[in-house]
Write a structure and sequence with these properties.
By secondary structure, the protein is mainly alpha-helical. The chain is 79% helix and 0% strand.
Length: 275
């Protein structure tokens, strides 16, 4: 087989995936962009984007959405890194048990999982029942950013842990052994050997969790109220309540722009770190 034949064969194999992504991913995005600019009505205008940037309410919703995603990402990284380290170094039955506990939340639908957290955080829920038994005042946690963040961390933690654990499992133990031979205590081995070499897994997990958290809809809708508005929920309201499709499309494009900006920033930081 010549080089040209190999190139044509590769193009044929890739063509179905390209066609699928073009039809069901790129195409809808272009339609949404055209709708947000009013191109479908024959009058191009950026008025909807000006409405978003000129109204403090929409700016606050955008800020809250980004802050929620950032908080969830940070929490999953702090909680997930130790879990990933233990998972990567576990063997046999212990590893299988840890892996099952990690992915178990993904085996339950998001609605059932969210209602479970509502039972935990409710006024008569598990937390307040324990506090009452201890003679402590009840907490009003439900319908708060804290409750939403905890529920999102619960479901997104596997994505962070698996990203980091896959990197940790690929590390050569000889690096840590060399550091130990040179007299480095365990915490120095982790700080100067394990953490830098597993950075790519932590970054990949953070990007994945951030992208999923910023687009979360069901958890915020069920566990939140008017004080916990985020962009995905606002898009839903504009579509179903206000029937303002162009403005909903503009909000969706803003959400997409935020995610792309985070991806660009991560790539830029990675290039600088590698230089």
């Amino acid at each position: 087989m010549t080089r040209g034949d190999g190139t044509r064969l590769g193009a044929l194999l890739v063509a179905p995936a390209v066609a699928f992504l073009s039809a069901f991913f790129v195409g809808p995005l272009l339609l949404a962009l055209a709708e947000s600019l009013g191109l479908s009505r024959g009058a191009a205008s950026a008025a909807h984007y000006g409405r978003i940037l000129g109204d403090s309410y929409y700016l606050e919703v955008t800020r809250d959405t980004v802050m929620l995603a950032a908080a969830v990402t940070g929490a999953t990284l702090v909680v997930g890194y130790p879990y990933a380290l233990i998972l990567a170094r576990a063997r046999g039955t212990a590893k299988a048990a840890l892996l099952f506990l990690l992915v178990a939340p993904l085996l339950v639908t998001v609605v059932v999982r969210t209602f479970g957290w509502m039972i935990v955080f409710g006024r008569r829920g598990l937390i307040n029942a324990v506090l009452g038994a201890l003679g402590l005042p009840a907490l009003d946690i439900l319908n708060s950013w804290t409750a939403i963040a905890v529920a999102l961390v619960h479901v997104l933690l596997p994505f962070m842990v698996l990203s980091i654990a896959s990197t940790l499992e690929s590390l050569d133990p000889a690096f840590e052994e060399a550091a130990a031979t040179l007299g480095a205590p365990p915490w120095r081995q982790f700080l100067h050997v394990v953490a830098p070499l597993s950075r790519d897994g932590a970054v990949a997990g953070s990007i994945l969790v951030f992208a999923l958290a910023i687009g979360s809809f069901v958890t915020v809708m069920v566990m939140g109220d008017n004080r916990t508005m985020v962009l995905p929920l606002l898009v839903y309201q504009q579509l179903t309540v206000a029937s303002d499709w162009p403005f909903a499309a503009a909000l969706g494009m803003v959400l997409l722009a935020i995610v792309l900006a985070v991806f660009w920033l991560q790539a830029r930081i990675a290039r600088r770190a590698a230089a």
